[in-house]
Amino acid sequence: MALFPPSTNRDYRGATVSAWFLMLAGLLEFVPGCIHFFLPDGGAGVIGGLDLTTRGSTIIAVFAWFGAIQIPFALLLFVIGLRYRTLVPLALLAVITARGLMAIDGWFLKGSVSGHHPPEHYASPVTVALALVFLFLALRQRPAPAAG
């Protein structure tokens, strides 16, 4: 059994642009994941504006942990968009769910307590809206190519 099974792109009937959007979403997930994992403060202070004087090491560790989740998720999104397009709708639904939960938390729940909104609080609702459009396009069926 190979690490990468044969591509399913031939069976995908949704919009190709949805697969490209998924790969873009993967790239836009990968970059913050690397920031959270590799930056000395995980971006918590220099980007997020968090005060790290109290429990800074815990905050930085949580950011690194989140980055460690973002990096493989991003790679998976990219591989799906590139080779396994029959999974594009499911992957877009995962993006919508993750970013939707982040937006709800950032604007209305725990993340809204400080009143400070890092870039992701703005990016998440936009991502949800765009991903919904591309999910709709991915679910629209194009005709199968003629056999020949």
Fold blueprint:
Blueprint lengths: L15 H23 L17 H28 L4 H21 L10 H21 L9
Low-confidence stretches: none
Residue share in β-strands:
under 5%
Globular, elongated, flat, extended or rod-shaped: what is the shape? elongated
Radius of gyration: 18 Å
- Could you say how many structural domains there are in total? 1
Q: Please bin the fraction of helical residues.
A: 55-70%
Largest sheet: none
Order of helices and strands: HHHH
The average pLDDT score comes to 91
Total helices: the number is 4
- First-to-last CA distance: 30 Å
How would you classify the helix and strand content by structural class?
mainly alpha
The tally of beta strands, per DSSP, is 0
Structure commentary:
The chain has 148 residues and is mostly helical. The protein has one domain. Helices cover 63% and strands 0% of the residues. It is built from four helices and no strands. The protein has helices spanning 16-38, 56-83, 88-108, 119-139. Helix 1 packs antiparallel against helix 2 (56-83), helix 1 packs across helix 3 (88-108) and helix 1 runs antiparallel to helix 4 (119-139). The longest helix is centred in the middle third of the chain and has 28 residues, at 56-83.
